[in-house]
Specification:
Layout lengths: L2 H13 L7 H27 L13 H4 L8 H17 L9 H10 L9 H11 L7 H20 L10 H11 L7 E3 L6 H11 L5 H10 E5 L2 H13 L8 E3 L16 E6 L24 H12 E12 H5 L3 H12 E8 L13 E8 L5 E6 L21 H7 L8 E5 H6 L19 H33 L1
Parallel strand pairs: 1-2, 1-4, 2-3, 4-5, 6-8
Antiparallel strand pairs: 5-7, 6-7, 8-9
Helix pairs in contact: 1-6, 2-11, 4-6, 8-9, 12-14
């Protein structure tokens, strides 16, 4: 049975439960159950490897104790256990010391999680389906990628995934071009379900040669996500990508901390992120930033924070909307700071539809390095593949499309898609970065005198057509008389 069929079967069972209302609640219900199953599978592996291993979860609350048997606890007994024992304990899990990092991870995952199901019989049916997957099996573990994608698609159908979903092709291209190295500290300050982080793990793991290298990788991945459901998905995703204790993936909002409180220990080597855009932050958040950069627009605040968090020489790749490129006021001051403090060396302009159907806003990929001012900005206009007029669920963007950019990246020359602009020109334009492709004739306005001649010719042609039709109508009326 395919993973898609299994997940659909689980959701069909949940639809029968009166307590679960809508896709978002069904997904949230499924994710906390998957988390406990995956955690238990990994604990059993840890116990085989380390005889001194001690679980942070009390024995009676471990998945194997109450969920593993198909004929185990069910009905009212199961509901009472989950609502009165399991959730209260995990939400307030006792952590003896700060070194008990696994306990801290579990508590952060469950602090905003809920059990929506009301029927113990239906919950038992869901549990039995989940038990069919062994996450210690390399084959079944690989299948979590399919589970993850199915959950993301369902989240998108629930209408809110645009906040934390970036097409895989975009995340992989950004990580490839930033090229994080083993030992570098990598951050996604708005990590959602962990797409950029998992791409980074896969990229760096190719450099791992021994146990010490693996430990360096484990310690280098950092993320922050403010919403509970994507945070839980991200933590689970990290575990299945080999991050044994994903303590560095925090459930928090990076913007609510005053920017002056971020010190040297918070600096990072690499940032890859798609901060939420099109939204505004709650009242007061902008006060955490210096006076000239205070705004309620989330993407703008993240751009200021990213510049602050990078070490000298640190590299960033950020998804930003067109509005940031041409916006004025606070946006102008932010762009001035970006060009002064960083080398904004590349802007890849994406076509319409990359994030369809979740948003129609045009987006751009900004690549910059902190520490030296910008001298010139290269632009690359990413074209649609042959035969495409837009992207869709059935025709998403693919990583193969970025091959021309990758080939051009290290040996840059102007072509029909690429052009460069001196920073002097950008400054003189009021820091407008919304610069159109000069090689695209469709974008050119044209010579005013030529346009006027064309317009007058069209008017004359319209007049001739009108006169001809009028003459034919008069002739027809005369014949009828």
């Amino acid at each position: 049975m395919s993973i898609t069929t299994t997940i659909k079967g689980i959701q069909d069972i949940m639809r029968k439960d009166v307590g679960v209302d809508g896709d978002a609640q069904r997904i949230s219900q499924l994710v906390w159950m998957l988390f406990l199953k995956i955690f238990d599978d990994q604990e059993q592996e840890a116990e085989l490897m380390d005889e001194d291993y001690t679980s942070p979860i009390p024995e009676n609350l471990q998945w194997r104790s109450w969920a593993a048997e198909d004929e185990g606890m069910t009905g009212e007994e199961l509901m009472a256990f989950v609502n009165n024992d399991l959730f209260p304990t995990l939400k307030n899990l006792s952590v003896a010391t700060d070194s008990d990092q696994l306990g801290l991870v579990i508590r952060s995952v469950f602090e905003d999680a809920y059990n929506y199901m009301k029927s113990g019989q239906l919950m038992r049916q869901v549990i039995n389906k989940i038990n069919a997957v062994d996450f210690n099996s390399s084959q079944d573990r690989h299948l979590f990628g399919d589970i993850y994608e199915k959950i993301l698609k369902d989240l998108q159908n629930a209408g809110n995934a645009g906040e934390y979903y970036t097409p895989r092709a975009v995340t992989q291209f950004m990580v490839d071009q930033v090229n994080p190295q083993l030992g570098e500290k990598v951050l996604d300050p708005a990590c959602g379900t962990g797409g950029f982080l998992t791409c980074t793990i896969e990229h760096i793991r190719k450099q791992v040669k021994n146990v010490d290298d693996e430990e360096r990788l484990q310690a280098s991945i950092h993320g922050v996500e403010k919403k509970p459901l994507p945070h839980m998905l991200c933590v689970t995703n990290m575990m299945l990508h080999g991050i044994d204790i994903p303590i560095n993936v925090r459930h928090d909002n990076t913007l609510t901390r005053p920017i002056r409180d971020y010190g040297p220990k918070d600096r990072v080597d690499v940032i890859v992120t798609n901060p939420p855009f099109g939204g505004v932050e709650e009242d007061g958040v902008e006060k955490n930033f210096k006076a000239g950069f205070q705004t309620k627009e989330t993407a703008d605040l993240f751009l200021v924070l990213i510049m602050h968090l990078l070490k000298p020489g640190g590299r960033a790749a950020v998804v930003l909307p067109d509005g940031t490129l041409f916006g004025e006021g606070v946006k102008t001051r932010i762009k001035e700071k970006l060009l002064t403090d960083c080398n904004l060396h590349t802007i890849v302009r994406l076509p319409n539809g990359v994030f369809n159907p979740y948003t129609g806003i045009k987006t751009n990929l900004l690549f910059f390095t902190k520490g030296t001012p910008t001298k010139e900005v290269w632009f690359y206009e990413h074209p649609y593949p042959p035969g495409y007029k837009s992207y869709s669920k059935t025709k998403p963007m693919r990583i193969q499309e970025f091959k021309p950019e990758k080939t051009w990246w290290e040996n840059r020359e102007e072509n029909e898609f690429a052009w460069k602009v001196p920073v002097k020109t950008i400054v003189e334009s009021g820091f407008n970065l919304d610069i159109k492709n000069p090689h695209d004739d469709s974008e050119k306005i044209g010579d005013p005198d030529e346009l006027l001649e064309e317009y007058q010719a069209i008017l004359a042609e319209v007049g001739q057509t009108r006169d001809a039709l009028k003459a034919e109508l008069i002739a027809a009326l005369e014949r009828d008389q």
